[in-house]
Structure prediction request, 74 residues.
Amino acid sequence: MILTIDQESPLTVREQQILYHIARGLSNRGIAARLALSEQTVKVHLANMIAKTGCDNRAALVAYGFETGVLKAR
Prediction:
């Protein structure tokens, strides 16, 4: 899977990066470690992503990523 940064997406670049790591199966803690963020910052980004997209959970966010082209299968 690859991440395609979409400048037209309602998600920020950082939120798109977090979405990529969610799709790879990382926990909030794992994402925080990879991106040098606090776990709380990751949680805030997730809440913002859910509000922007109307998704209910992480799985729905990943589906949104593929549907919008932010995430692509190799």
